[in-house]
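Side project, low priority. Logging it here so it doesn't get lost.
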Amino acid sequence: MKSIRLTKHALEQCVERGTDKTEISEAIIVGSIEQAKPDRLLYRANFQYNKYWQGNIPN
């Protein structure tokens, strides 16, 4: 398998979205794949996040 390299923009988005490189890698490896644009793929996986985030307290 190729190594997963993240752009500077992707790393900045990690903070905004409450994730990290480990979860992104896992989503790419085991998540569902969708067509995002004609030349782009979207990898999706849901992870439990039990911390305060963007003004919301976890249930």
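Brief comment: Helices lie at 8-17, 21-30.
Revisit when time allows.
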